[in-house]
Design a protein that fits this description.
alpha+beta; Rossmann fold; Jelly Rolls; seven-stranded parallel beta sheet; five-stranded antiparallel beta sheet; 11 helices
């Protein structure tokens, strides 16, 4: 993502484990003005008296706030960032067309849209076909489905777009009108036309031409956005919007890695749990345009979320486009243009701003709304589909024949590719399968970790093994791996994961421009093990791609999500194997029946699992059985065995209590001194002290401290990260928090709110 020079705002994102009223009270007690409930336990506040934009953060003490209010989980001053669209920019030629009414048909439709003959990506003659015309001819048009374009707005007056004002919003200006504002905008209108342009005589026909269109304006090259804005947009009108199409993301530089903000992850969870009446909102995401720079979409926290469907771009010839980022998180692909690399290729024609038609839209920006439109056709075929059903259907129905993209067969016999996921999406296959699809079983997870530190010498690989032989997941879906490692040249480090079925997947490819040498903890996600059994040994290997790269593996965590029973068979009845349960007594009909916790799914409670307090739990984990031979284990080391059950360690709690006690003592001393100073200053009329005071200079001007150098464990120096170091004798900044003030009078040249 791009970060401007004045990127700190006067807003604070608070994660607070309380009611809205309690969160407001917290703000009132700390000089924070309540702005909005963002999503779940996240709230946004304004720092009273702070400058709207600043080049440096306000000084505050998060740990001190947590010590005073146990419901406070996290607090971070928000920074503005500028996401990029996923289209390839070039000079455009605009054209207009006049409208002629054309009646819609349910069978063997005739398309009269002006540019239909050039819409190669939708037509049956294209090989391989995406089956869109065939789906239309079967009566699927997107009718009754609402698709939101989350972008830089849309042209609400465009004659070729079915815009729904009631479901649209502009999050940058906080107004209802999502129209483009700046002269360089129009990308959202391009995406809207690909997804759902009307069937008429104007410009083009969209994939789901009878779908409802909502415009959510989130991108603005001048204003910028915060993670809270993103979360608000991605959960807007959850009960009414079915699909959120996102052709944007962090900068595709091939250098940085950009993690998913916690509030955006919370928005995804909220969406899949409560969107579409509990069936789950569908989030479609462009995989990225950094292919020309050897970027890897595993470095983008948005595309590697298990809650998003990452879409790559296929050229007309069936090969990867030069710009499309590939990685093992990509689920499927859709057509887009590749004209900059292949003069014989064709771009995508679509709607443009000011009621125009453009003929050169491409990038994964074009592939994403095309996929979103196909999903709209699928939901029309079966609106009971859950967000996981949609992903399973894409895995089942996508086409690999006719594509050139390194396909191989995984341990479950599924063809998969790092360039195209499970292949080219096919609308006809999807609507046919969706009609009779049964809801997939509830999912569970298996988790294990290793803290065995390993290092290499030049040219030698590093391998470590995790045992998941007790795992109850027999049909894998998503696999996440959280790795803490360091190498002298991060871009030359290739990370591979091997499953019990001997499928070897690259979970992080080499990125030649990434010269970062800092230690990093990064989460990766892959769908390439889909359908395999998770039980057995998993291994991770770090490769030195070109030689001369010193690498260190410090720890890694493995989480496998999936089901106990075959998802093709649908959801088992409650209480049966793989079905939902409330406690172990509600599971029956098979040997060693137990109700797994977490998950509340019926499993065989054996092989390292046993019933504890009415639930089936894994031995050695929190709440599970333990004894002298079965030890309690967690990556933080915070468990102990007490009465044969693993519980939070009292020694850890005691240590925390001791630290808190010392801190409280120091704080009380400072407060006492502060009170004395306060009384004296009040008497001489110097000032009035209150919580979260911003000194006078900072109310009117930005504060810049040239003594601070921003270094990053994620993206290297000069990039947004999590660790800051002082080079001028000032306080060290960690996690965007700074030194304590505890209501003392402001120190010269310091932002003071506590």
């Amino acid at each position: 993502m791009n970060v401007g020079p004045d990127n700190y705002t006067n807003k604070v994102l608070i994660e607070y484990d309380g009611t809205v009223e309690e969160a407001k009270e917290f703000g009132n007690n700390n000089n924070l003005k309540f702005l909005r409930h963002v999503v779940r336990s996240f709230y946004e506040f304004r720092i009273v008296g702070a400058k709207q934009r600043s080049t440096s953060p306000v000084e505050w003490d998060v740990n001190g706030l947590k010590g005073r209010d146990k419901k406070l989980k996290s607090a971070e001053q928000e920074k503005v960032h500028y996401m990029v669209t996923k289209s390839v920019l070039r000079e455009r030629i605009f054209s207009n067309a006049t409208e002629v009414f054309h009646q819609r048909f349910r069978r063997a439709i005739t398309v009269n849209d002006a540019k239909w003959s050039n819409q190669w990506h939708l037509q049956t003659s294209q090989n391989p076909s995406m089956g869109i015309e065939q789906a239309w001819n079967k009566g699927f048009t997107g009718s009754g489905i609402t698709l939101a374009i989350v972008d830089d707005g849309i042209d609400t007056s465009h004659i070729d777009l079915n815009y729904d004002a009631a479901l649209s919003f502009n999050f940058m200006q906080n107004i209802a009108d999502p129209n483009h504002i700046n002269g360089d905008e129009g990308h959202g209108t391009n995406c809207a036309g690909v997804a759902a342009a009307l069937k008429n005589s104007e410009c083009v026909i969209g994939t789901a031409y009878e779908a409802n269109l909502a415009g959510l304006r989130l991108l603005d090259s001048k204003t910028g956005m915060t993670p809270s804005d993103e979360a608000a947009a991605l959960t807007y009108k959850l009960s009414d919007i079915d699909i959120y199409s996102n052709s944007w993301g962090p900068t595709d530089s091939g250098i940085t890695v950009d993690e998913l903000p916690s509030v955006v992850n919370a928005a995804f969870v909220e969406g899949v749990e409560h969107g579409r009446g509990g069936k789950g909102a569908i989030y479609v995401w462009a995989s990225g345009n950094g292919g020309d720079l050897s970027d890897d979409c595993q470095a983008d926290g948005y595309t590697i979320s298990m809650y998003t469907i990452a879409i790559a771009a296929v050229s007309k010839s069936g090969t990867p486009t030069s710009y499309s980022e590939h990685c093992s998180a990509v689920m499927a692909a859709a057509y887009s243009g590749n004209i900059d690399s292949d003069p014989n290729d064709l771009a995508i024609i679509t709607t443009g701003p000011s009621n125009t038609c453009v003929d050169d839209f491409d990038g994964t920006s074009a592939a994403c709304p095309l996929a979103a439109g196909i999903i709209a056709l699928t939901l029309q075929a079966n609106d009971a589909l859950t967000w996981r059903d949609v992903q399973h259907l894409i895995v089942k129905t996508s086409v690999s024949a006719g594509l050139t993209g390194g396909f191989y067969s995984n341990g479950a016999g599924k063809q998969v590719s790092p360039y195209f996921g499970f292949g080219l999406m096919n609308a006809e296959n999807l609507v046919d399968s969706a009609a009779s699809w049964e809801t997939v079983p509830p999912r569970i997870l298996c988790y294990a970790f290793s803290t065995e530190s390993r290092e290499n010498s030049n040219g030698v690989t590093i391998t470590d093994i995790i045992d998941l032989s007790k795992c109850k997941v027999l049909y894998t879906e998503h696999v996440t791996i959280k790795v803490t490692f360091q190498s002298s040249y991060r871009g030359d480090t290739n990370i591979k994961l091997k499953s019990p079925a001997s499928t070897v997947v690259t979970v992080l490819g080499n990125r030649t421009l990434d010269d970062d040498a800092y230690q990093i903890t990064w989460s990766l996600m892959t769908v390439h093990f889909w359908g395999e059994s998770a039980a057995g040994s998993w291994s991770v290997t770090l490769y030195d791609v070109f030689g001369g790269n010193n690498m260190n593996l410090y720890s890694w965590e493995l989480t496998v999500y999936g089901t106990v029973t075959d998802p093709v068979d649908g959801t088992p009845s409650a209480g049966s194997l793989g079905g939902k349960c409330t406690e172990s007594g509600t599971c029956s009909g098979y040997m060693d029946a137990g109700c797994l916790k977490p998950g509340l799914v019926c499993v065989p409670c054996n092989n390292g699992f046993r019933t504890v307090h009415g639930y089936c739990r894994e031995d050695g984990t929190e709440g599970g059985f333990c004894d002298v031979s079965i030890l309690c284990q967690s990556i933080t080391g915070g468990l102990e065995c007490k009465s044969n059950i693993c519980v939070t360690s009292e020694s850890s709690s005691a240590n925390i209590g001791l630290i808190v006690g010392v801190v409280v003592g120091v704080v009380m001393g400072l407060i006492l001194i502060g009170i004395v100073i306060y009384v004296v200053w009040q008497k001489i009329g110097k000032m009035k002290v209150q919580p979260f005071v911003i000194n006078g200079a900072d109310r009117n001007a930005g504060y810049t401290n040239a003594g601070y150098e921003h270094t990053s464990g994620l993206g290297g120096s000069s990039k947004e990260g999590t660790v800051h170091r002082s080079t001028a004798g000032g306080p060290t900044i960690v996690g965007h928090s700074m030194g304590a003030t505890y209501n003392l009078p402001p120190i010269s040249n310091a932002h003071t709110f506590s």
